[in-house]
C-alpha cells in the first residue's frame, strides 16, 4: 500500500491573515479525499504546504509517518496537477510525461515502458508525439495527470484540475481521474470549490471555512448529516426553517407544528433543514409535516422542476424539487401542499 499523509495542528499565516488554522487532517492509504470550500478558505495553501512549496508556521506534516519539515518539494515525492495544465509547451506528450523521470536519472528503457503504459492509461497512446498546443484542454490535463503519476508519487495533489474545462469534458474527466486513482491506489488530495464534483468522486470530503475544518466525512454523511449550517448550505440547496424545537420530537415554525427526529432534550431555538428534493406533493389524504403555499416561480431542471412556493408569514420562498411529471400540474399561481418525512429533515442548533 502507498503512503498516507497527516497534518497535525497545521497553521499558516500571511502577515496578520491566518490562511490555515490548527488544521488536523489525514489522507488515508489509497484514499481519494477532497478539500472543499469557498474561495479563500485555505485549500490551496494547505495543498502547497503538503507539496512543500511553503512551510507551516506551526504544526507538522507527515508523509508515510515521516516529518516533512525542511524536506524539499522533489524529495517529498508528490505528484501535482494544477488548474492551468502547466505542461512544457516545447515538449511533446511523451516528453512531458517523461520529464520527472529524466530528472531522476531513470534508465531510458524504463522511462519508455512507463510512459507508454501511462499514455495507454490516459487513452492517448496515439498522441505521444503531439505538442501541448495540438491537444485539447482535456487531453492536456490527462497528460498533466500522467506526468504527475510518472514519478510513482507517494501522494497525488490535484488543485482544481478540471476548472478550466467545459462541463462535458469536466464530467468525463472526473470519472477518469477517479478510475486512474483507484487503479494506482495513490492517496489523493483533490482541491475544489465545486461541491458536486467533490461529492461525486471522493471517498471522503473535508469542508473548510475560513482556514478551519468544518466537517470531514463520506459524501453521503456530508450531504445527509451536515453538522453546521455552513456545511448544509455549501453542499447543495436547502430550506432553512428557523423556529423552536419543543424538546419532544416536535418543532414549531411560524405556528406550524412538525414532527422531527432528534435526541436533543429541552426547548430551544433551532433551524430545521429540508433539502428541496425531500418534499413530495400531498394529494388528497393529509400527511404529517404539511406545508401549503402558492407557487411563485418554476424552473425546468431536466428530470426535475424546481418550484418556489410562497408560504404565509415566511420571508423566504420554500424551494421544492419535483419530478417533472409531478411538477407539470403546478403553474405559477397554483396552490400546492407538500410534506416531508421526519427522516428527511435535520435540526441544527447553532445560529
Ligand atoms: P481559491 O479557491 O480562490 O483558490 P483557496 O481556498 O485555495 O481559494 P488560498 O489560496 O489557500 O484559498 O488562500 C487563503 C487565504 O490566504 C486567502 O485570503 C489568500 O488571499 C491568502 N493568501 C494565499 N497565499 C498568499 C500569499 N502568498 N501571500 C499572502 N496571502 C496569501
Automatic annotation (TrEMBL):
Q: Domain ABC transporter spans what residues?
A: 5-235
User: Which cellular component terms (GO) are annotated to the entry?
Assistant: ATP-binding cassette (ABC) transporter complex
Identify the domain of life: Bacteria
Protein's GO biological process: quaternary ammonium group transport
Write down the PROSITE patterns for this protein, in alphabetical order: ABC_TRANSPORTER_1, ABC_TRANSPORTER_2
Name a GO molecular-function annotation.
ATP binding
What keywords are annotated for this sequence in UniProt? Answer: ATP-binding, Nucleotide-binding, Transport
Protein's name in the database: ABC-type spermidine/putrescine transport system, ATPase component
Species for this entry: Acetomicrobium mobile (strain ATCC BAA-54 / DSM 13181 / JCM 12221 / NGA) (Anaerobaculum mobile)
Amino acid at each position: 500500500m502507498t503512503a498516507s499523509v497527516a497534518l497535525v495542528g497545521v497553521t499558516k499565516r500571511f502577515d496578520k491573515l491566518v490562511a490555515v488554522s490548527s488544521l488536523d487532517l489525514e489522507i488515508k492509504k489509497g484514499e481519494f479525499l477532497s478539500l472543499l470550500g469557498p474561495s479563500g478558505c485555505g485549500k490551496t495553501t494547505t495543498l502547497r504546504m503538503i507539496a512543500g512549496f511553503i512551510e507551516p508556521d506551526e504544526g507538522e506534516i507527515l508523509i508515510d509517518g515521516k516529518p516533512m519539515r525542511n524536506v524539499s518539494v522533489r524529495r517529498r515525492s508528490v505528484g501535482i496537477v494544477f488548474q492551468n495544465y502547466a505542461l512544457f509547451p516545447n515538449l511533446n506528450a511523451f516528453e512531458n510525461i517523461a520529464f520527472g523521470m529524466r530528472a531522476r536519472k531513470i534508465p531510458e528503457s524504463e522511462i519508455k515502458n512507463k510512459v507508454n503504459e501511462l499514455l495507454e492509461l490516459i487513452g492517448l497512446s496515439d498522441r505521444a508525439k503531439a505538442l501541448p498546443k495540438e491537444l485539447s484542454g482535456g487531453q492536456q490535463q490527462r497528460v498533466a495527470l500522467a506526468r504527475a503519476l510518472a514519478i510513482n508519487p507517494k501522494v497525488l495533489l490535484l488543485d482544481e484540475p478540471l476548472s478550466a474545462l467545459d462541463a462535458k469534458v469536466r464530467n468525463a474527466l472526473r470519472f477518469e481521474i477517479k478510475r486512474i486513482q483507484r487503479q494506482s491506489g495513490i492517496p489523493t488530495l483533490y482541491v475544489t470549490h465545486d461541491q458536486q464534483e467533490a461529492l461525486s468522486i471522493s471517498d471522503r470530503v473535508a469542508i473548510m471555512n475560513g482556514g478551519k475544518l468544518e466537517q470531514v466525512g463520506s459524501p453521503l454523511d456530508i450531504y445527509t448529516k451536515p453538522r453546521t449550517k455552513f456545511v448544509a448550505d455549501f453542499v447543495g440547496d436547502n430550506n432553512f426553517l428557523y423556529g423552536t424545537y419543543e424538546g419532544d420530537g416536535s418543532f414549531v415554525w411560524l405556528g406550524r407544528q412538525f414532527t422531527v427526529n432528534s435526541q436533543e432534550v429541552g426547548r430551544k431555538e433551532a433551524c430545521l433543514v429540508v433539502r428541496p428534493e425531500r418534499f413530495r406533493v400531498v394529494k388528497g389524504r393529509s400527511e404529517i409535516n404539511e406545508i401549503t403555499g402558492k407557487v411563485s416561480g418554476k424552473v425546468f431542471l431536466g428530470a426535475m422542476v424546481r418550484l418556489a412556493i410562497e408560504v404565509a408569514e415566511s420571508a423566504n420562498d420554500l424551494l421544492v424539487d419535483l419530478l417533472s411529471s409531478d411538477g407539470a400540474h403546478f403553474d405559477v399561481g397554483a396552490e400546492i401542499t407538500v410534506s416531508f418525512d421526519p427522516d428527511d429533515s435535520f435540526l441544527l442548533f447553532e445560529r
